[in-house]
Write a structure and sequence with these properties.
Layout: E1 10-15, E2 20-25, E3 32-35, H1 38-58, H2 67-70
Antiparallel strand pairs: 1-2, 2-3
Length: 75
Amino acid sequence: MGDPTNRYKYKIEWSDEDEEWVGTVLELLNLSWLDKTPDQALNGIQQVARECVSDMLTHGEEPPIPVVEKRQPSL
């Protein structure tokens, strides 16, 4: 199956409140990462997502399916 986090949907946006870039991942809504640049925020949230999925697998939990794999084509 490979690393599902490679296919997760990440979002990077500016936070006026925190005055930093915030990274989030749609499949793991409880995760976020703040950093000084968009690239650092993306790298940070991707690393946290990988750690979260690794922890889930270690404890016998099924990680979330990437959103792109849930979509069914219209006929």
